[in-house]
Specification:
Layout lengths: L28 H6 L12 H7 L15 H11 L1
């Protein structure tokens, strides 16, 4: 989990630098409900088997892309 103080996010499908080389893997909502494992469930050894059996839940993520131009302008105005 990367939600503690001073921790950073991890890009999807990157290897994490810990024992066993777990892979940061996007999950769908049903998997979150049933996820009793740890963040180390998927590794470089089994991630391709998972991807062959299941469609990537982030496959269409680009469809929801939004520009950050206006939010950045608003943030800059607030900081002044």
């Amino acid at each position: 989990m990367c939600n503690g103080y001073g921790q950073t996010g991890v890009a999807p499908y990157t290897l994490r630098p810990v024992t066993g080389a777990p892979v940061a893997t996007p999950l769908d909502w049903q998997e979150l409900e049933d996820f009793r494992g740890t963040s180390r469930k998927y590794t470089y050894k089994n991630i391709f088997r998972r991807l062959a059996q299941k469609q990537d839940p982030w496959k269409n993520i680009g469809r929801y892309a939004r520009s950050l131009k206006n939010p950045m302008k608003k943030l800059a105005a607030l900081r002044r």
